[in-house]
Amino acid sequence: MIDLLLYMSENLYFLQRNRSLIARCGVRNASQIRTVSAGVPQGYSIVRSSLRNCFPYIDFLELMNRNGNADVAGRERQRDRKCHPKYLVVPNTKFIEQSAKCYSRLFSNGVYVRMLDRLSEEINKYYWDNLETKGDFSAKMAFMDDIERTIRRRKDWRFKLFPSGSTMTQLASKGSDLDVAFWCPDARQFFPSEADAAYHFLHWIRHFLKTDREIADDIDDLDYVEAKVPVLRIKSKAGVEVDLSACTESFVSGIHNSYLIRGFVSWDSRFASLCMLVKDWATRSEVKNPKLGGFNSYAMVLLVIHFLQCGVSPPILPNLQKLFPERYARNVDGMVRFPMALDFADVELSRDHLEVEPNPLNLAQLFILFLDYYSRFEFRTRYICMRDAEAKWRDGRDGSSPISDTYTVFIRDPMDDHSPGRTVRDVQDLQAKMKIALEMLTSPQKTVRLSDILSYM
């Protein structure tokens, strides 16, 4: 059973620093929704609610004016006049027009189209065959709970562990690891920085896991990994691998990012299947290899989202943050605005007010266009802004803030200003690999199977 609980802090320092959000959450049996007190400051309570399909409901108490948020959303829609009127994305019209000219004849070739139809069926089957099972999910959650209990046996810190990443978005493949955030907001008063707090907490937790009798024998490997976001990599003897990071801020971005991506998964079934193909192909071709200058896994997912928003017409994915401003966390003029609740089990999004022409492209066609889009993307002069669903100019000619040339690839995160594309060094080398795969796929004389794509390079 998952037990997600964001604790109200009784510390005045914390309350003063975090007026925008006091978060609380919990998980209990389906349809059981009740409010109980749990040792939090007077006047507040903890909401315990349903767990459906193994995904949690997270309830947040927001201390900002929700009507004010709606007004901001209205101003954004007026300001973004070049957005798609329904999906609130900014199409990359230059690429869309070029790809239409380039592929219209190929995509109307009867023999080639039938080959792509068969390939699309293979891609979809590949997704379902390799998707993480409920048993895998349960094993991850059980190991995370063991880690949490171990910490609680050693320290009476006010903290919580939160699962995030692909495991919470339905993009996790069999054997994938679990991203977990150790959240302890009270700790900021004792450390000069977030980085210093993370370093100490992760080393303390490593010591607890090494020396605790109840869990030490179940752990196969335990390493502290120094990185921009350091993690404690924990592997159980049962084969479950956890990447544990530490967060002392009020905003746990990993949870909100996971919730946003899960929204895209529920919007169009092609997104998840295309994501798994892109990530697996990129791993084999080393386009996804952050240690050697490639993209990381999260960046690859964002590339797929941006392509399905701005690289096809009609768009397949909308800008969920602008379309549903009360449902998703958004960065508005440097301030992150939080939703009242996150329900990972509630995957239905209302489309009643949308009258958008369906996009008929199948998975194979989308993979071809994805490779074409990024093999020709001008990363030197453009960057991807996820929160605005737009490819913007680095020099700021479109009114956006200029982007430093320090970043070979800049992808502005949906929530904050960091770039998930920061690991990329030689983007031209990655684009060359995309062109090789694209050349194989666009030969009308050759029958291409999924095995050819995954073994190519």
Spatial order of the strands forming the largest sheet: 5-6-9-8-7
| CATH architecture identity of the domain at 85-130 and 253-455 | Orthogonal Bundle
- Which fold name is given in CATH as the topology of the domain at 85-130 and 253-455? Poly(a)-polymerase, middle domain
Number of strands: 15
- Helical fraction equals 25-40%
The level-1 CATH class of the domain at 85-130 and 253-455: Mainly Alpha
Rg to the nearest angstrom? Answer: 23 Å
Count the DSSP helices: 14
Largest sheet: 5 strands, mixed
* Ends apart, CA distance between termini: 42 Å
CA-based shape: globular
Portion in strands: 5-15%
| Overall pLDDT level | 82
Low-confidence stretches: 1-54, 58-79
What class, by secondary structure content?
A: alpha+beta
Give the ordered list of helices and strands.
HEEEEHHHHEEHHEEEHHHHEEEHEEEHH
Seen as an oligomer or otherwise, the chain set is single chain
Cofactor: Mn(2+); Mg(2+)
Domain Poly(A) RNA polymerase mitochondrial-like central palm: 119-264
GO biological process, one term: RNA 3'-end processing
GO molecular function: metal ion binding; poly(A) RNA polymerase activity; RNA uridylyltransferase activity
